[in-house]
Amino acid sequence: MLTDDELPARHLSVSLEPTGWKEAAIAWEVCASIHRSFAKGKDALFKTRQAGFVRHADDARKMLAAAPATPQAKKHPDEAAVDRFAAAMKSKLAEKRRQGKSGWDDPRCPTEHLAALLREHVVKGDPLDVGNFAMMLWCRGGSTNETQAEPKRPIIEVITEFDAIGNWCRVALTVDGHRFFMEYCSEHQDDAEDFAEVLRKALGITGDSDAE
Prior knowledge:
Elements: H1 6-12, H2 20-39, H3 46-66, H4 77-98, H5 111-124, H6 127-139, E1 156-163, E2 168-175, E3 178-186, H7 189-203
Helix pairs in contact: 2-3, 4-6, 5-6
């Protein structure tokens, strides 16, 4: 018949895989806890048995600590690359937030604008920026080929008018059909034409009209 001290020793003598030592330690610790709760004051060999449970739980913990770590399954190169890229993206986004840049997730930010920024950064050459803008666009449900409508250019005209009654010239400006008279007036048409030309250059138009 086995003694109380031999019983746990026999169980520990069983060869366990490295991953089994954790379960063994837990089992011995549970045994010690149950034994303390129900056998104290009733078991004549309480101290001997309790010491055995505790000792073998400690031994299992030591074996667990000494066991070689279970090798992790090697990640597929695709997954490893995505993890590295995602970490770099997060770092770049955090840097931009510290600079006060945000708002890509605001519905008021048009996806066309995000698409334009993505294409712009493709030309600039940093794939990390391209990845972040692609992420933003994807999360917003946008497309890389979205374009913003070109703002309509106003039709601007600068003309000179001759008042035969008053015998003087004045310069008139029209923007999309809305007419404005300039303060400049002269009795000499050449002076009025010169002023009109200066005004055209200041407005970035050529000739008498910017209409295309």
